[in-house]
Amino acid sequence: MKKRTIALSVLAAVLLLTATTYSFANAPAKGTMGVWGYVVDGKNASLSVSDQPGVDTLVVSRVTAPQAAWLVVHADDNGMPGRRVGLAHIDKGESTDVAVKLTGVKTQKVIVAVHADKGTPGKFEFDMNNKEKSADRTFFVNRKELAKIVTVR
Fold it and tell me: pLDDT tens for residues 67-114?
C-alpha cells in the first residue's frame, strides 16, 4: 500500500511539472499579444519597407507571401495598429515595389502588415475588434506578426 501511495505521488508530481512546463513554453512572450493569425515559415513570408517621410503613396520594396495576401497599413496608435489608412492586394510569392495609396494619415508613423487573403478572394475581411475570427488575419513568423513600423510624416 505504501509503494502505491508513493507511486501515485510521484506520478502526480510528474504530471504537475509537465503541465507547468507546457504552460510556460506555450505562453506568449512578454510584451506580445500571442499568436492569433496564421503561422508561416520565414522562408515563405517576409516584408521589406523603409521610412518614406512626406509620401501619399507608400512603396513596399519587397514582400513575400505564401498565398494571395493583403498589405494593410494602419495609423500608428502608440505602437499598436490604429485606423486603416492603406490597403493593397498582392499575389502569392514575391512582389516588389508595391504601391499602397495612403488616405487620412495624421500620424508620423504607420504600421505595415501582411494579412492572408483566406476569405472571399479579393475582398478584405478583417475586423480589428474580432481579429481571431476574421478570415484575413495577419501572418506570423517566429511568433511575431509580419509587420513593420514606418515613418511617413
Answer: 999 999 999 999 999 999 999 999 999 999 999 999 999 999 999 999
The answer to whether 58 and 73 are in contact (CB under 8 A) is yes
Whether this model's pTM surpasses 0.85: no
Task: In the chain, count H helices and then E strands.
Answer: 1, 10
- CA 118 distance to own-chain centroid: 14
- Among 100, 93, 111, smallest CA distance to 147 is for 111
Listed in sequence order, the residues at least 6 apart from 97 whose beta carbon sits closer than 8 Å to its beta carbon are: 59, 60, 61
Q: Exposure pattern of 113-124 as b/e (b: 16+ CB <10 Å)?
A: bbbbbeeeeeeb
Q: pLDDT tens, 12-51?
A: 444 333 333 333 333 344 444 567 899 999 999 999 999 9
Supply angle C-alpha 60, 61, 67, rounded to 5: 70
Q: How far is residue 150 from each of residues 80, 132, 137, measured CA to CA in Å?
A: 12, 25, 20
Residue 4: its H or E element? helix 2-26
d(CA 29, CA 143): 8
Only one residue has cell 498582392, namely: 90
